[in-house]
Amino acid sequence: FQYLKRFDQGRDLDRFRYKALSVEGSPAECVQLFLLHCGIVDPSWAELRNFTWFLNIQLRDCEASVFCDPSFVGDTLNGF
C-alpha cells in the first residue's frame, strides 16, 4: 500500500523504503488501491490476496537487492 500510494501520487520510489508497522491511510483506501492496480476488473478476495502477496515479495526482493540501491548504482538506473 505504501508503494502504491506514492506511485499514484507520482512520487519518486527509488529512495523509498517500506516502513514496517507504519499505518497509512484507511482500510477502504487500501482496498481501493489494490482494486485499481490488481489488473482484474472484478477480483475475488483470493485474487486480491495473491496480487498483494506477489507484489510484497517483489518489492521486498527489490529493496534487498544491491542493484536496486540508489546509493550503489547512482543515477544509472533512475526510475528503473
UniProtKB/TrEMBL annotation:
GO terms for cellular component: cytosol; membrane; nucleolus. The keyword Phosphoprotein does not apply. One of its GO terms (biological process) is ubiquitin-dependent protein catabolic process. Keywords: Ligase. Signal peptide: none annotated. The keyword Ligase applies. GO terms for molecular function: ATP hydrolysis activity; ligase activity; ubiquitin-protein transferase activity. This is RN213 ligase. It comes from Rhodinocichla rosea. The lineage of its organism: Eukaryota, Metazoa, Chordata, Craniata, Vertebrata.
